[in-house]
Amino acid sequence: MKQRLCFLLLLAISSWAVPGLANSILIPMDNQQANHLKAYGIAYKALKDDLDVDWLLNYRGGSFMLKQVPAIEAECRIRGVSVEVISDARAASIKQQLSDPDVNMNVVTLQKAAKIIVYSPIKVSPAEFENTDAVLLVLTYAEIPYEVVYDEEVLKGDLPKYDWLHLHHEDFTGQYGRNMHRQSMTDIKVQEDIARKYGFSKVSQMKLAVAKGIKAFCAGGGYLFAMCSAAETLDIALAADGVDIVGSSYDGDDVDPDAQSKLDFSKTFAFGNFTLEGDNGYRGFSTFSDINSAGGRGFDQASGFFELFNFSAKWDVIPAMLTQNHESIIKEFFGQTTAFRKGAVKPSSLVMGEGKTSDRYIYGESGKGQWTFYGGHDPEGLRGGGGFRNPTDLNLHPHSPGYRLILNNVLFPSARKKKRKT
């Protein structure tokens, strides 16, 4: 009996090093996954622990594979993430399958945990509306760490310390969102105080400087992800550099009557050929431009679907990474900027997801960096009874394909190679 026990013990110990036995784990991202969103948090934790993660593009919904580590397995159990323990031989076989030139699959090795920041007024003011920021919600739910910055950090030049920057509801034109639901008088006063502190006579001038700082961050190699009105107003502010587009209800003087003709679309990330909307005043309601496919309807109730394009995982690796999902048809969702009018999207912008009449999900490059703009406010948000103020409970949406697109972007910078230690 003792000899048998000793034999079993030796077999168990030796199995850790024997090829063909369980030395790898697969985190499936198809319909067998119990929690798609938290699975991204597991991948990020592995990267933080200095482990490489293989992202298996188009394999079972864009699964993750890495060396078997007890701490990672335990974390999967704690967070309710499905995991399959496989042999190294099986892992090698999967990679061989994905390398076949006749299949639209690929392996991308993630090697570093990106330093993530979210630009948000919650840094300096109550900003209650920001509680519904989809990226803040999903980063918290997936247990991916992040920091919050706002105007001062950008103006001080802190952005190059980070890899990944998110923008959401912000109005970079200096018109406080043009919506009484967006910002309180307290939020406005805080921005005015920052503008005065840094020598700007108007908030619009300060926001333009911030927009330029964000553009420089991206050009220097940073990754920018923007949703909702931030994607639209960032480009409007950049195009209107040196032009007064802000009405007297916000800054006390009138708009330049020739503002529209003076817009310089060469300065923008994604949009051109757009027309500015008139000013209805802060206590009224207005959209910013006809970039927004919802027109003057603002928080338009979307009722259709948009479709992700199928990119080559071998030749178009970047968009293939950013569109990994277990579903390719996704329910549309509204926002102050709901989606992007097709005629306003520059030819240089790559459309990765589109509805019948608008583009929803676009990508591009700026200098050494990259950006993604995603239309809408909250992929699982509901409309009615002031519900847009209520944060979504992601415990009810662990398989959300719309939220998965956000998390694809969070992991994307991890595909860059780690710097060698010298």
Overall mean pLDDT stands at 88
Query: Separation of termini?
Result: 54 Å
Biggest sheet architecture? 10 strands, mixed
Instruction: Please name the CATH architecture of the largest domain.
Output: 3-Layer(aba) Sandwich
CATH fold descriptor of the largest domain: Rossmann fold
- Tally of alpha and pi helices: 13
Rounded radius of gyration (Å):
23 Å
| Helix percent band | 25-40%
Give the low-confidence spans: 1-20, 296-302, 383-387, 418-422
User: How many beta-strand elements?
Assistant: 15
CATH secondary-structure class of the largest domain: Alpha Beta
- Helix/sheet category: alpha+beta
Q: How would you spell out the order of helices and strands? A: HEHEEHEHEEHEHEHHEHHHEHEEEEEH
Going by CATH, the homologous superfamily of the largest domain would be Class I glutamine amidotransferase (GATase) domain
| Strand portion | 15-25%
Give keywords.
Rossmann fold, alpha+beta, 422 residues, five-stranded antiparallel β-sheet, disordered N terminus, elongated, 15 strands, Alpha-Beta Plaits, single chain, 2 domains, ten-stranded mixed β-sheet
